[in-house]
Automatic annotation (TrEMBL):
GO terms for cellular component: extracellular region; lysosome; membrane. Its main location: other. Belongs to the acid ceramidase family. Residues 1-20 form the signal peptide. Residues 38-95 form the Acid ceramidase N-terminal domain. Its EC number is 3.5.1.23. GO terms for biological process: fatty acid metabolic process; sphingolipid metabolic process. Keywords: Disulfide bond, Glycoprotein, Hydrolase, Lipid metabolism, Lysosome, Secreted, Signal, Sphingolipid metabolism, Zymogen. It holds the Pfam family NAAA-beta. This is Acid ceramidase. It comes from the Eukaryota. The active site is at 135 (nucleophile). It is found in: Lysosome; Secreted.
Length: 389
């Protein structure tokens, strides 16, 4: 809704930051991306004790995680004029860390131990992604019935602007932390996902042969992520963290139908959009969530004149997107221009690399195919001229 904090902040900042109108061009020359942009793979064993299962991942990225948290701390200090507020929040979160459900509590303790970063800061790092990420997700089926699922993850809005480099500071510090994870049990891959190292929840994932899942944030007056987090801190804990729910779905659900059931009815700390892909023709939906339950399930069979794909950004699909953040219209334009017959990783990547779907906040693009288990993710950078969101 136009009254949401994100829209208000965008309105306040637009006069200072929004540049001249950008040409909305559907790219055709961005795939394959350079090998240097490919995200590194790690294995995480679910058979190992939670307190040690992330040690090798965060050991390789501990300096990047530290740099990111330092940047966020500097941002809060510049905003408030003091480090007191950040330190107070971090100390408070340390006190409530024992209330985090297992195995995520022990995983965060283990990450803190390996990196030497205080537990409260690791918990704060995991809360980041409950709050906001501005994303574009696409489910598409080609003319042969092959299903594809892809997404851009945009993050860092208003967390510090570098005037010299014309970029969001937190976004720049996030890219080096990106990793791909193969979650394994008894030596077999259960599912694959893309993470910011140190974050234990799930935002982008594929369960080979079963289903795929991406999460886009939703800002709404019917329950905000901030309210949910505050309730948790104050002792009301009848809802699950969004990232923990998606992690549970990827670990335990064995089918598209089961995943859909879990994602529609479980009470959460934060509202969200769940973009869920299946393994057979016409399977795919966008689940619009309040904190309590689903308020809408947009099935591919109800996608008006383009039933072969769904495209979701950060606004309810039955309402117009926010005027200062319309990635939906150019995204749909490019999808329709590419067409179902040509659809595949190449064309979806080109769509997600087209301005303004690609913008200064974009950290990575992920490409997934359930039937073959193919999963690729690439760090993304939008070179000038480029919109700031």
């Amino acid at each position: 809704r136009s009254e949401s904090w994100l829209m208000l902040l965008c309105a306040l900042f637009c006069s200072a930051f929004v540049p001249a109108q950008f040409t909305q061009e559907c790219r055709s020359d961005t795939y394959p991306p350079p090998s240097s942009s490919e995200v590194e793979w790690f294995d995480v064993s679910l058979d190992e004790a939670p307190i040690i299962r992330w040690r090798h991942v965060v050991a390789r990225r501990q300096s990047q995680i530290r740099d990111l948290l330092l940047q966020f701390k500097n941002f809060i200090r510049q905003l408030t004029g003091s480090s007191v507020y950040f330190n107070l929040v971090a100390r408070s979160l340390t006190l409530i860390a024992p209330t985090v459900p297992q195995p995520y509590q022990d995983e965060m303790v283990g990450i803190s131990t390996v990196t030497g970063i205080p537990l409260g800061e690791i918990l704060l790092y995991n809360i980041f992604y409950e709050a906001t990420n501005l994303c574009t997700s696409v489910l598409a089926e080609d003319s042969k019935g092959v299903l594809y699922h892809a997404r851009n993850l945009d993050f860092g809005l208003f967390f510090g602007w570098d005037k010299a480099k014309k970029t969001w500071l937190v976004t720049e510090y996030l890219r080096p932390t990106i990793v791909n994870i193969r979650f394994k049990k008894s030596g077999q891959t259960v599912f694959m996902s893309t993470h910011f190292a140190g974050y234990v929840g799930i935002l982008t994932a594929l369960k080979p042969g079963r289903f795929s899942l991406t999460v886009n944030s939703r800002n709404s007056l019917d329950g905000s992520s901030t309210a949910g987090i505050i309730e948790w801190i104050l002792g009301k804990r009848d809802a699950i963290w969004m990232g923990f729910l998606t992690r549970r779905v990827m670990e335990t659900a064995d089918s598209y139908a089961q995943a859909k059931q879990m994602l529609t009815g479980t009470k959460m700390l934060a509202p969200a959009y769940f973009i869920l892909g299946g393994n057979s023709t016409m399977q795919g939906c966008v689940i619009t969530r309040s904190r309590d339950a689903a308020i809408d399930v947009w099935e591919r069979s109800a996608a008006a004149n383009h039933t072969w794909y769904l495209l979701q950004t950060n606004y309810d699909h039955w309402k117009p997107p926010f005027v200062l953040d319309d990635r939906r219209t150019p995204g749909n334009k490019c999808m329709m221009a590419k067409g179902q017959a040509r659809m595949g990783f190449k064309e979806i990547f080109n769509v997600l690399s087209s301005i303004p779907v690609l913008n200064k906040l974009t950290t990575y693009t992920a490409l997934m195919r359930v039937d073959t288990g193919e999963y690729h993710s690439y760090r993304q950078t939008c070179k000038d001229p480029c919109p700031i969101w």
